[in-house]
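[audit] Reproducing an earlier prediction to check determinism. Same input, same settings, fresh worker. If the C-alpha cells differ from the archived copy the diff job will pick it up downstream; this log only records the rerun itself.
[audit] input (79 residues):
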Amino acid sequence: MGEWNTAAAASIIKNVGLENVMFEAAEPLVFEWYVKNYGNEVNLFVDHSQILQVEGLRQNIRGNKSTWGRIVYPAPAEG
C-alpha cells in the first residue's frame, strides 16, 4: 500500500464537518485508521462483510494493541 493522503480527509472534515461526510473504507487498516483518528462516530462506507469488524472496533470490543482502549465515544472535539 502506498502513502495515504490523510491531509485530504482532515481538510474535508474541517470544511464540511464530520457529521456531514462519509468515507469509503474498503480495508480493515483504513477503517481502523478513521476510527482511531476521528472516533467511533465517523461515517464509514464498508462492505457488508466488514460490518461486525467495524462495530466491534467502534464499541471497543475488538481491536489490536494499537486500538485497544483507545477508541473514544464520542470523539473528542477538535479545537
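[audit] rerun output stored. Observation attached for the diff report: The two ends are 31 Å apart (CA to CA).
[audit] end
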